[in-house]
Fold these 4 entries.
Entry 1:
Amino acid sequence: MPIDAHDTAYLDALKQLEKHLGYTFKDRALIARALTHSSHSNETGERNHHLLCNERLEFFGDSVLSLVVSRYLYNHYQNEPEGDLTCMRKDVVCAPALARYARKIGLGNCLLLGIGEDRNGGRNNENILADAFEAVLAALYIDTNYSLDVVADFLLPLVEEDLREYEIKGTDRDYKTPLQQFIQQTEGDHLEYVLVHEEGPDHMKTFEVEARLNSNVIGRGKGRSKRKAEQAAAKDALELFGVK
């Protein structure tokens, strides 16, 4: 049976979440809203039920997440070009990564879900977890009087773990092969990589490449070499198709 904001189970789960966050909310209604899925608010029957769920906070949290991660990458990877920074950011702010962070802090246990969504495994749903994680970031940002540093203190240890893996694997991970294998499932489809732009002096050029399927653009990528730009474009295309 779904929990609600007055259940002992919910309050206990919320306390555990705050321990992971390293922060106790002053505005309890704010964190409760961040954890409220639309399926739960819809069941209230309230006319303004769309304002009682976490969707607005998720919208705000997406920008907070991007700013905190972008600031970190800009300051800690000062020799990396824009294309590589973009790839790194994509890796740590994508839905699978956010859902993974959410599971680490037990966020699913705190979600307020509708009866049907709860029965259908919503507490472990990747998109629901990722959206709620962003909403929690927004709630944390607001409740701390808009302190990016407090958000960063919680978020960056999670992100840094993924970035260390990125550094070990480097930007040479092969995305072109799995994309090619995916495309080959449909006979007659043609995949190509097209250089559309390059800039900078010869020793510091940045290349931009489009991955095209039957002349339609399915991915874009930038890198210090054409090969890296192609890999970034392939990664972008895989994300478009939902291939992991």
Note: The chain has two domains: 8-170, 174-241.
Entry 2:
Amino acid sequence: MHRIGLISDTHGLLRPAVATRLAGVECILHAGDVGSLDVLTGLGAIAPVHAVWGNVDDRHMPGLSERLQLTIGGCRLVVTHGHELGSPTPAGLALRYDADVIVYGHTHRALVERLGTQLVVNPGAAGGARFHLVPSVAILTLDAGDASVEIVALT
């Protein structure tokens, strides 16, 4: 069984609650709008971090990729910020990316949607509170090819 931390839209703010909520994960996937190398350093103290850049990030910031394609426990994952679609939707992402799990950010809205065999996840925004949304992260569990996710509030 694999437990993966999912985070997005930190915008330079790493809330102290993130360390508690993501404790024990084997790695952390950041879906962009990181905002600061300090965020990656802080997350790296919890678990190894893989991150993509978002529309507000410097594309040349060390440690950021345009997109990630990973296989963990036999499950194919894509991590993207989602802004390449303008306003990303689960259906649009599922059409664009061939993966078992698609992780994205950009909208700041936590969302979990299963489309056929694909699981599409937005962990919500973990940075400063915006749009009257509760800051959140997510825990992705991969177990013998089955993927499930839990959205975890940071309040």
Note: DSSP finds three helices and eleven strands in the chain.
Entry 3:
Amino acid sequence: MSVSPTSDFENLLASGGIEYIAGVDEAGRGPAAGPVTAAAVILPLDAIIENVRDSKLLTERKRESVAASVKEKALDYSIAHIPNATIDSVNILNATRLAVRTAVETLKIKPQVVLIDGKFLNIKDLTCISVVKGDSTVFSIAAASIIAKTARDELMYSYAKEFPEYSFERNKGYLTAKHLEAIRRHGFSPIHRRSFKVML
């Protein structure tokens, strides 16, 4: 049984005088192709948006609908894509941290507290709280997970048109059997992560 995220964490912070709280999450750590993407979202404390939950629990159509609602209601949001070349250069963990930091730092509104899914390094000059499984329990983090996932999927659709032989519109860069066969047949595309171990 899945747990729906709540605004309890945000309301607790708000009771202490905190007004601007950014939820942050990432998408695309595991694929063998494409960027890792992070989103930061600042929502009004009284925001009511239906179906906000871990993006993996929503259908693609539902995610897109909820993402549109989150963007409409948000006081501010930001998206950061870190490309495969950077992932290969600095490793996926550091690239993910860079995506998170870039998403937060490009917000127009400076958050007073940042709630981040999982475990990440602190962001300079900001109060950061890491929440394990935050995309399942914390409303603003779940909202960010939906923005990150839909933004990355949209980018992978554009790559699918550029490199149709890899079916990125279906696998989103993850190593399915058909994706692996395409790599064997055509080699790596310019957006594949060469640092990932791919058994050919």
Note: The longest strand covers residues 21-27.
Entry 4:
Amino acid sequence: MRGSGGEVNISIIIPMLNEAAQLPDLFAHLLPLQRAGCEIVFVDGGSTDASPELARVAGFQVVMSACGRARQMNAGAAAVSGEVLLFLHADTRLPQGAPHHIAQALSGAVLWGRFDVCITGRPFMLRVIAHMMNWRSCLSGIATGDQAMFMRREVFLRVQGFPEQPLMEDIELSKRLKTFSQPACIHHCVNTSGRRWETRGVWPTIFLMWRLRWAYWRGADASELAGLYR
């Protein structure tokens, strides 16, 4: 399945929960991609702020799902038809030419990948955090959801989608995908919101995330870690 100009057919899957405040900006970002041939689906996990209604009025497909990012992304993957699946957080924006970059990245034996990330916000440390995330991801071959993970549908199905756990689903999926190929690391940045760090405090959030990752690496249960995260 190929789009015009030899590009791969890409389905963009966006899990959401009470994102009405930022949806107009996200719609403006996505409409050119939709016009260019990308299939776009929002997967709502039970919003109470009219998010699904806004997406439908804007002309996007909406799928309803049980709450939970992994469940929502799996539900979205089951509802789309593209040969490449791109999972995009509602507070993340793709770089110019993203479909072309993805097509190039997947033109050989590589089956999945991610973008570099830039974190928007006032604190200078957000730039340092983004640099460290990208560096760590290049070394480890592990991607995070903030980096707009993408993969061929065939390999997504072979690993049975995202593990339906409440936290670290992106890390666990990366581990499984690495058994098929190393990821493509696209060095054009997605821009993601720094609201998580600004709301909780930059340094407390850094320490929390490293603590959770260390615990998960040592075998801690994702459900227990999700309680700490919240």
Note: Residues 1-6 have pLDDT under 50 and may be disordered.
